[in-house]
Write a structure and sequence with these properties.
mainly beta, 197 residues, single chain
Length: 197
Amino acid sequence: MKKFLLAALVGLFSLTGSAQIVSSTSRNITTTTTVVKKEKTRYFGIDASVGKMAYKNEYYDEKSSCGAFGLGFHWERHYNPYIAWDTFSVFWDAPFDSPSEFDRVAFKTGVRGFTPKFFRNMRGYANLDLGYALLISQDYSYYNGHLEEEDIVAHHGFALEFGFGLRLTDHVGLGYALDWDSNSKYKGNYLRLSFLF
């Protein structure tokens, strides 16, 4: 009986000792949970632009410039926080005074780079896009002192856009865009406001 009682006490003490070890070990374990916000990789953007455009008539060697506005949209595919592909963009612009007589549409693709985030999650960006532009304009001529409409003229060719600015938030950007194409000798300088979804 004494042996059985001694074995029971030794077993009880060993269980109590291991329970204390487990409880003391569990008290010393610190659990740290870090919540990592997953970056969005695809954006759809709507771009509203206002600025100045210049166009050179290849037949009369005249160059005219005027205030202009534009509207476009683009898709971005982000590969990491610093590099994105502008998979496809469409941009339409026209002069303020005669938007129905001058239309330009550009289709482009390109790359976009970003700086690290700074003040209030803002970050800088720069983009370079290449593609195709189609410019349609109504030509006029003077005949016997009167302005007369002539045929509609279409130009098309290589298009390039260079831009830079700030992403004010993850969904709003403000920047400058230089838009250019080859055949129509067109150049546009725009202040661009972008909304991203």
